[in-house]
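Appendix B. One record, verbatim.
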Amino acid sequence: MPMKYDRSLSPLLRLQGVARDFYDGRQNRRVLHPTDLALFANALTILSGPSGSGKTTLLTLMALILNPSEGSVFVKERDVTSASEDARATLRLRHFGFVFQNAALIPALSVIENVLIAATIQGAAASQAVVRRAGSSLDRLGLSDFSRMKVERLSGGQKQRVAIARALITNPEILLADEPTGNLDRRSGLEILAIFKRLHRDGRTILVVTHDQAVAEHADRVIVLKEGTVAEDRNVAQPRDAEEETQALADEEKTR
């Protein structure tokens, strides 16, 4: 069973009255209205909403990539709103792992080299313990036979598995995934969701951004954005089971 998160505990990440404006060439336009939001340990959270609702803006604020136009951002109750860019970069490396819609891998590198990229930035790639951890992650994600293969030869689903392994190599406290199933077929998408569910069962704190309502029902918490405002923030009593659905789809394909 997944570990349960507790909203009464101090959050890993907290936004307080955070808003964001962008200049459209004529005037400032508010794309995210003042928002209070917190991510708690052991939660698998889905951030959903239609295109243009502010999901990506909110994600980049949570990831300390953008500065808010107003409000405050706290990492483990430390106010980092006014932190320098170097300090923010260090916080990102220390606390966050990232998975992007297009995987964002380096085609000329092998699978294992891509996985070690984040560790290289931290100066830890030479550590045998880190290399072993990378190999273990690839094995768990079904990629051990592909570790020396160039990533350009992989399928879309396999590339996303590499991206997940890369995101986990520094053992981040929060895994942020931006539309990780958006470019995948249904079965590959379910397989990626099943991986997130397994990581969640192991105690990982995960935020997945998606516009797909079907994906949202796999989490234990769903936040819905509409027109730059949090319209819903609810627990899911009975999340869908991605592993069961993947197996059912495979069985269905065998009978065709």
